[in-house]
């Protein structure tokens, strides 16, 4: 029995019943794929339902304000995915008459749609024999065939794509692509693969050569950066506060936050008093209190944010302030959303 047939047989028996598996609608498949990038299925599924309910069609998503899209995305992280999602929906409506392209090449023209996503939509929706290669597929192929090329190198990426094409099942590409991804997620898992009961164990190079733990190979990660965030939570006598929208190309673009002071290390009370002397709202304060004694360490892919929330009580009313009761309607990073839930005025 061939490699692909074993994968298909396994998938038929073990596949999870996921909401996007019962459709060929490219909008829903595309939506699920974007949500599940860098997100586990159990976390992403509720977001899929939220987006389908709020935006049943690509036209609905394209017409929505960006702030609503970002608010629904809140908690998933990697917010560039949400902005690309919105931009792509607009592109589909404007440039493609509201219909997703029905070819691999056409799908790759869409913003935020690379090789993997184009391959997934093309094969699942249109039965186009294009192999998918995601983290799960890299793991299955590298272990089974004993490939030591780094999966995040240019040479490795090209090699695995070619290998995936050689072993795929062209007649049932829809189930095969979903099957090999599912196989990598459940059977050939990263840390505790079920090798003893694996249908591929007789021909698996990694298992036979005791290299399961060392494959796949990945080049060293980017050096981790540490940053020190101090959020200034102003609350006046009318329970109004001050928020601002993040601009530029950094993290959390277009999300809202409390005024931010970034320091070179963890700040103490005296440091913040000096910093606030440079701010228009820092000159007439009744009190300045640190909310969290220990900094909250918010871990992103290439940086750790050591975060403190400072509660400021101004002696005057805040000009153009926002009522604290309205804070929950703004799209904010999950770090700030967690603070808002715990802080009581």
Automatic annotation (TrEMBL):
One of its GO terms (biological process) is base-excision repair. Its EC number is 3.2.2.31. InterPro entries: A/G_AdeGlyc_MutY, DNA_glycosylase, HhH-GPD_domain, HhH_base_excis_C, HhH_motif, MIG/MutY, MutY_C, NUDIX_hydrolase-like_dom_sf. Keywords: 4Fe-4S, DNA damage, DNA repair, Glycosidase, Hydrolase, Iron, Iron-sulfur, Metal-binding. The keyword Transmembrane helix does not apply. One of its GO terms (molecular function) is metal ion binding. It catalyses: Hydrolyzes free adenine bases from 7,8-dihydro-8-oxoguanine:adenine mismatched double-stranded DNA, leaving an apurinic site. SUPFAM superfamilies: DNA-glycosylase, Nudix. Pfam families: HHH, HhH-GPD, NUDIX_4. Binds 1 [4Fe-4S] cluster. Residues 35-186 form the HhH-GPD domain. Its cofactor is [4Fe-4S] cluster. It is an enzyme of class 3 (hydrolase). Adenine glycosylase active on G-A mispairs. MutY also corrects error-prone DNA synthesis past GO lesions which are due to the oxidatively damaged form of guanine: 7,8-dihydro-8-oxoguanine (8-oxo-dGTP). Belongs to the Nth/MutY family. This is Adenine DNA glycosylase. It comes from Flagellimonas meridianipacifica.
């Amino acid at each position: 029995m061939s490699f692909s047939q074993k994968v298909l047989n396994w998938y038929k028996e073990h596949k999870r019943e996921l909401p996007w598996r019962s459709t060929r609608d490219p909008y829903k498949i595309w939506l699920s794929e974007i949500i599940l990038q860098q997100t586990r299925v159990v976390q992403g599924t509720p977001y899929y339902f939220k987006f389908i309910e709020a935006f049943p069609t690509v036209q609905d998503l394209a017409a929505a304000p960006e702030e609503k899209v970002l608010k629904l995305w809140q908690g998933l992280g990697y917010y560039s995915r949400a902005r690309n999602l919105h931009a792509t929906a607009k592109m589909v409506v404007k440039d493609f008459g509201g219909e997703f392209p029905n070819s691999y090449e056409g799908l790759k023209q869409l913003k935020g749609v690379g090789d993997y996503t184009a391959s997934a939509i093309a094969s699942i929706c249109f039965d186009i024999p294009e192999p998918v290669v995601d983290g799960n597929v890299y793991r299955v192929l590298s272990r089974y065939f004993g490939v030591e090329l780094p999966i995040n190198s240019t040479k490795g990426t090209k090699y695995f794509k070619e290998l995936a094409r050689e072993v795929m099942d062209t007649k049932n590409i829809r189930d095969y692509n979903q099957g090999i991804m599912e196989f990598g997620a459940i059977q050939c898992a990263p840390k505790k693969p079920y090798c003893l009961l694996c249908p591929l164990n007789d021909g698996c190079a990694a298992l036979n050569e005791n290299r399961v733990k060392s494959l796949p190979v990945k080049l060293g990660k980017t050096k981790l950066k540490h940053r020190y965030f101090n959020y200034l939570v102003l609350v006046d006598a009318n329970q109004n506060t001050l928020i601002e929208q993040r601009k530029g190309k950094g993290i959390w673009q277009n999300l809202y936050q409390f005024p931010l002071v970034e320091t070179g290390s963890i700040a103490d009370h005296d440091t913040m008093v000096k910093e606030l002397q440079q701010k228009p709202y820092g000159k007439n304060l009744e009190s300045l209190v640190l909310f969290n004694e220990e900094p909250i360490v918010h871990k992103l892919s290439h940086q750790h944010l050591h975060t403190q929330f400072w509660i400021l009580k101004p002696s005057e009313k805040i000009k153009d302030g926002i009522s604290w009761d309205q804070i929950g309607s703004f799209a904010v990073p999950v770090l700030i959303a967690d603070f808002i839930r715990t802080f009581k005025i």
